[in-house]
Write a structure and sequence with these properties.
single chain, 145 residues, mainly alpha, two-stranded antiparallel sheet
C-alpha cells in the first residue's frame, strides 16, 4: 500500500508551498519586500533556509529576479504565477483573522479601485455564491488510460 497522495492539481499546489517558509516569502514579497535583506527581516528564516527557498520559488516560476533599474535595486518580484498564489494568501488571511485569537491583530486590505476594506472569498464561477466547507463534492477529471 502506498502512503503518498495521488498526484493531482491540488497536490502540485500543496507541494509548491508545503515547507514552513514559502508562503511567508510570497507574503513578504507581495507586501513590498524585494531585496534579500528585506525578505530576511520580514520572514525571519535562517539565511541558508531563505536562500534555498528563494531558489526553489524562482525555479518553480513563483518568483523571478528583479533587474536593477534606475532608483530601484536588484531583488525579487512575484511572477504572474506568484501573484495568483497571492490570492491564496488572502483567503488564508481571512482564516487567520477569524481564528488567530484575541492577541493577533487583524490586517485590513483596501481595494484600490473603490477604497474600501475587502475580504477574500472563494466563490462559485457559475452562480457567484460563496463556497463554504461541506458545500461541494470532489470529481477527478478523467485521465486517459
Amino acid at each position: 500500500m502506498e502512503n503518498r497522495p495521488k498526484r493531482d492539481s491540488l497536490a502540485v499546489a500543496l507541494d509548491a508551498v508545503s515547507d514552513r517558509w514559502s508562503l511567508h516569502i510570497v507574503r513578504a514579497v507581495a507586501f513590498g519586500a524585494s531585496r534579500y535583506t528585506d525578505i530576511l527581516r520580514a520572514v525571519g528564516a535562517p539565511r541558508d533556509v531563505l536562500s534555498s527557498r528563494l531558489r526553489k520559488l524562482t525555479a518553480s516560476g513563483i518568483l523571478r529576479p528583479r533587474s536593477p533599474e534606475k532608483g530601484r535595486p536588484a531583488g525579487y518580484e512575484l511572477t504572474r504565477k506568484g501573484r495568483d498564489l497571492g490570492q491564496v494568501v488572502l483567503v488564508l488571511k481571512r482564516w487567520g483573522d477569524a481564528h488567530g485569537g484575541d492577541d493577533v491583530p487583524p490586517v485590513d486590505f483596501i481595494h484600490d479601485a473603490c477604497g474600501e476594506v475587502f475580504v477574500a472569498e472563494v466563490r462559485c464561477r457559475a452562480c457567484a455564491n460563496p463556497i463554504r466547507s461541506g458545500e461541494f463534492s470532489v470529481h477527478r477529471a478523467s485521465q486517459g488510460c
